[in-house]
Amino acid sequence: MTPMFKFRITAMVLLGLVLVLGGCTQTGRDTPKTGPATPLSPAERAEQALSLAANSIAPHRQLHQLDAAELLVLAGDNQQALKVLSSIDQNALSGQRLVDFHLLFTEVAMGQERFFLARDLLTDPEFSANTGQLPTSLRVKWQKLRGELFSLLGEDEQSIRAYAELSSLVTSPGEQTAISEAIWRLLTHISQQHLAALQATESDQLLQGWYTLASRVRENQGDMDKQLREITDWQIKWSEHPAALNPPPSLTALQEVANNLPEQIAVLLPLQGSLAEAGKAIRGGILSAWYDVRGASGKTPLIRFYDTSSSDDIGPLYQQTISDGAELIIGPVQREKVAQLLALPELPVPTVALNYLDTPSTEVHQNFFQFGLSSTAEARQVADRAWLEGRRFALAITPDSSSGIRALAAFRERWQERGGTLVEVPAYGASQSDFIALLKPTLQIEQSSERNNRLQRLLGKQLAHTPRRRQDLDMVFLIASPNQARQIKPTLDFLFASDLQVYGTSQLFSGIQDPGRNRDLDGVRFSAMPWTLPGYSADSMGPAEDLEPIYRHMFALGIDTYHLHQWLGQMLLFPNIRLPGNTGMLYLTPPDTIEREQPWGIFKNGRVVPAIQLQKKIPEAEHQAASSHQTP
Asked: What angle do CA 84, 87, 91 make, to 5 degrees?
């Protein structure tokens, strides 16, 4: 026994004697009263659990870690909870705690916008195979998460299947109705052609019923009376289907809307002057939709067109439409005339302006609505999409036009609000031809060459060198016409930026497939007008091919404008409803704006095809989190 060890024993014995004697000397005295110990906060208890985990072995280590993660969520520290959950070896968990791990990890990952990580968890083959053994309450939670996440990621069929499974687990009529509404909303995202294919091939009777109903309604979306007849016929044939027993509220509202459709519409358009081509394109779309319904013996309203280019003041013309009996007024297009409209004392009938104003909601009339082709709304959708796909460092290439400036400002605001970093190339002009001179300085190619030259001078010898662009970028936000884009994308490739994912707006594609010229755009993703994507809308109402690209989009706007006489009532009854139009999925944002949610297209081998699912791009930190929980 060493002297030091003897000393430690002696010290411990003496300390014990002191404590005993000290206790004896307190005899006869009042023991000081102490209050109850202050309970530890969830964050402090989480630290304790992590400390226990550090000194434990499997499976206790993983159980303590899971306890810590639950406490961190309770404390509101979801970011730290995600780190803890990512470090847990799920192979050491079993039974209820394995279930808790998967559900908690999924919820935290979704809350932290780690959507692909959440998807990996929700589709884990081993765990999914055993979910049928879970209690009903947990199966309900599981399917809800799947339905929500798949919908967010644009995987509509997967989401529909999850909600269909969910409908078999709940018994409350209210829950059943909410699920029906969720499924119906997802069905509106699926193209008409794809719906027909699903209806023809689906073997599951529950889903077959949904696809059949959606196909019937979609095929007759221009004629509400015929839609109602098709719905009634479907309900008779599918009387035990959830959509017949607890139908989506937005579908049952059709009857109420149909009873109050306007019989006369006034359309205010510029038919002369500088905006005449735009006005005529919109008018062409309205008439195309009107004749399409008329040709199928459907019910159509009376439409009167009024030329807004003949007067500087919209007031008298607006009053004339009221006197002529208009029950719905569409237009005007010019921003200054929309502003004049808002200055009127009242708007007696619903009025849909075909442009957007930045007007405070307190100044908006009750009957006033805005609708159009907003470049700013598309820019925000691009920002949201790129963020969902894992992009964080954007390069913006935009024109110096008024719409380009507004779109860049909208993208910048949304991107920075989310926490992204933005680098902006100087805006290019309409006559820009040398994009190398424009892009090279921002991509910092010269700095790469200068560094190499300095190194060669330092070493006194030639070095093999390939110039490099700056490395702090992972995407490009592009606003350009098709011709401009065909110059910009190859320039990016030439300047060593071919690996950057390019995101564009609907300007990139006019609906005319041109594989020979568009091969340079391969890989570019863009928010598309549905009418330009194969199978999304009826070809019978497409614009003439000799129309300029911008006017082809305005023709599609005219088609959707016609349908608003049926759709506006549905939007007012159900603010969350989405209605499939030619320019996008239309919905109303209170108090007055009709927005467009657009599908996505991608150039492949020079042709445009729908890009249904998100493109996965995981930052390094998320990659580590995603890989650490998987079974080795």
From this structure: 125
Given a contact cutoff of 8 angstroms between Cβ atoms, the answer to whether 217 and 227 are in contact is yes
Tokens 């052609």 found at: 193
Token output for 188? 């509106």
Q: Are 338 and 316 within 8 A, CB to CB?
A: no
Phi, psi of 318 (to 5 degrees): -60, -45
Residue type for 402, please? S
Question: What tokens does 22 get?
Answer: 């000290």
Closest CA to 577 of 189, 170, 190: 189
Is there a contact between 513 and 392 (Cβ–Cβ < 8 Å)?
no
Tokens of 8: 């430690």
What is the spatial distance between Cα 287 and Cα 281, in angstroms, rounded to a whole number? 10
Judge residue 396's burial from the number of C-beta atoms within 10 Å of its C-beta, 0-12 exposed, 13-18 middle, 19 or more buried: buried
Cβ burial of 28 (10 Å; 0-12, 13-18, 19+) is exposed
**Order of strands, sheet of 421-424, starting from the edge strand that comes earlier in the sequence:** 421-424, 393-397, 475-478, 501-504, 525-527, 600-604, 607-610
Residues 400-440: tens digit of each pLDDT: 999 999 999 999 999 999 999 999 999 999 889 899 999 99
User: Does residue 598 sit in helix, strand or coil?
Assistant: coil
DSSP classification of residue 23: H
* Residues 6 or more apart whose Cβ sits within 8 Å of residue 590: 575
Q: Can you read off the two tokens belonging to residue 598?
A: 């657009």
3 state DSSP class of 328: strand
pTM of the model: 0.81
> Residue 252: what residue type?
T
pLDDT, tens digit, 9 for 90 and up, residues 12-39:
333 343 333 344 434 444 445 555 678 8
Q: What is the DSSP string of 567-589?
A: HHHHHHH-TT--EE-SSSEEEEE
Report residue 585 as tokens: 């999925």
CA 355 to CA 374: how far, in whole Å? 8
